[in-house]
Specification:
By secondary structure, the chain is an all-alpha fold. Helix content is 57%, strand content 0%. It has eight helices and no strands. Helix 6 runs antiparallel to helix 8. The N and C termini lie far apart (71 Å).
Length: 150
């Protein structure tokens, strides 16, 4: 049993030297959704708290993001989140693409798929109430409709 614990500890120490390659953090993004669109303050705060760590270049990495094997999961989830939707490049998107993303936001938030349960477990302030979910969904619908009011 002692040898197993030593081997596990040694493996844990060794994997700390394998880089997780966490995605780069950029705090000022000129094409960011909140910087370029008229997002109500309460919605902007909810998006920042519940979405931006995975869906923007403004990720706040907590201490455990630097400890393997969790660092590998955080890196993967952040890359995947940014690939699916990155609020930091919002102003570069076409109206059709924005409308599609807003529709997806409505669906994911309404169905309770986002934010992910594991994320809200580790970030208690990110959990959305039913009222929050309804507010974000209504905002997403209204914003999507307004894109084509020209």
């Amino acid at each position: 049993m002692n040898k197993i614990l030593v081997a596990l500890f040694a493996a844990f120490v060794i994997i700390q030297f394998i880089p997780a390659n966490l995605p780069v953090v950029v705090k000022k993004n000129k094409d960011d959704l909140i910087a370029t669109a008229n997002v109500p303050a309460d919605i902007a705060q909810k998006l920042k708290t519940s979405c931006y760590d995975c869906h923007s270049n403004e990720t706040n990495y907590p201490w455990y993001s630097y400890v393997a094997p969790v660092s590998f999961l955080v890196s993967r989830d952040t890359r995947e989140g940014r690939r699916k939707l990155n609020f930091s490049i919002w102003n570069n998107l076409s109206k059709v693409k924005k409308a599609k993303y807003l529709d997806n936001i409505n669906d994911e938030v309404t169905e309770g798929e986002m934010p992910m349960e594991i994320y809200t477990y580790l970030h208690s302030g990110s959990k959305l109430s039913e009222k929050d979910r309804e507010a974000i969904a209504a905002w997403a619908d209204n914003y999507a409709e307004s894109l084509f009011d020209d």
